[in-house]
């Protein structure tokens, strides 16, 4: 081999060695950059998760709050209807008592009243007026009872649903806070707890979880109270129906008694008229006839 060829090979060997060293150096220097990029990617995923999770709880809290507030608003309307229903129910109850007192009083004095024609008509007119007033009150009470009962059912469904959702949220939210508070030695968990609490409290404002539960329970109570008012109104309606029936029976008995009293009066009058006819002695009648006969012969 010539001297020139040897030099060429030596140069080639040197070049290859330099290339190898350079590649190794680049690989070593590039490793920290790759590790740093991976860490940044994990941090970004963690931040995204915290944002999504806290936002999800905030949306859940918002939906729950709206359910509770809607139930509370419906409960207010239900309580207003309850007040009106109780009022008309009481009016019907009083009217029914008036009719019942009339019926009892009339039955206890029916013979006395029947003996006087003027009192018969006066009592019947009074009975008709009381019955009309009671029936009108009963009709109004039934109408309010129907509406109140229907609204009470709707309120109960809405309030029960809001209460159930509130309990679910409170339980899950409390567990989430406890879980990550237990790991508060790590900065990531502390930041998540802070973010979660901030977003949820921003939704509730001054409405705490406990107050939400109270409001939902209050709506449930309102529905039950209004239902009771409706049932009381229905009871007043039934009272009116019974009292009217008793009053009508008493007036029918009065009519019968009045007719009987009138017949008795007529019978007594006929007897009195018959008693007024003069009674002629039989002996005197025979003597009179004898005298008349003699006069005829003469």
From TrEMBL:
Keywords from the UniProt entry: Coiled coil, Signal
Coiled-coil portions: 117-190, 237-264
The signal peptide annotation in the UniProt record is 1-26
Q: Does the record bear ATP-binding in its keywords?
A: no
| Bias (Low complexity) ranges | 29-41
Residue ranges of the region described as Disordered: 29-48
Which protein are we looking at? Surface protein TolT
- Native organism is Trypanosoma theileri
The taxonomy runs: Eukaryota, Discoba, Euglenozoa, Kinetoplastea, Metakinetoplastina
């Amino acid at each position: 081999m010539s001297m020139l060829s040897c030099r060429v090979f030596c140069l080639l060997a040197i070049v290859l060695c330099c290339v190898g060293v350079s590649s190794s150096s680049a690989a070593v220097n590039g490793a920290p950059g790759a590790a740093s990029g991976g860490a940044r990617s994990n941090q970004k995923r963690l931040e995204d998760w915290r944002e999504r999770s806290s936002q999800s709880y905030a949306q859940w809290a918002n939906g729950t709050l709206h359910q509770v507030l809607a139930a509370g608003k419906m409960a207010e309307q239900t309580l207003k209807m309850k007040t009106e229903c109780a009022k008309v129910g009481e009016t019907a109850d009083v009217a029914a008592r008036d009719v019942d007192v009339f019926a009892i009083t009339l039955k206890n004095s029916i013979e006395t009243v029947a003996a006087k024609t003027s009192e018969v008509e006066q009592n019947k007119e009074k009975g008709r007026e009381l019955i009309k007033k009671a029936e009108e009150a009963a009709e109004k009470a039934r109408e309010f009872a129907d509406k109140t009962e229907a609204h009470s059912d709707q309120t109960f469904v809405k309030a029960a649903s809001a209460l159930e959702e509130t309990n679910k949220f409170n339980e899950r939210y409390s567990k989430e806070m406890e879980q990550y508070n237990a790991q508060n030695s790590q900065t990531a968990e502390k930041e998540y707890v802070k973010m979660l609490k901030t977003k949820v409290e921003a939704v509730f404002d001054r409405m705490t979880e406990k107050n939400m539960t109270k409001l939902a329970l209050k709506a449930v109570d309102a529905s039950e109270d209004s239902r009771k008012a409706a049932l009381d109104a229905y009871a007043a309606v039934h009272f009116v129906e019974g009292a009217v029936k008793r009053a009508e029976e008493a007036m029918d008995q009065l009519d019968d008694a009045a007719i009987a009293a009138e017949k008795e009066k007529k019978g007594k009058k006929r007897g009195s008229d018959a008693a007024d006819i003069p009674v002629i002695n039989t002996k005197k009648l025979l003597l009179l006839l004898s005298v008349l006969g003699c006069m005829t012969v003469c």
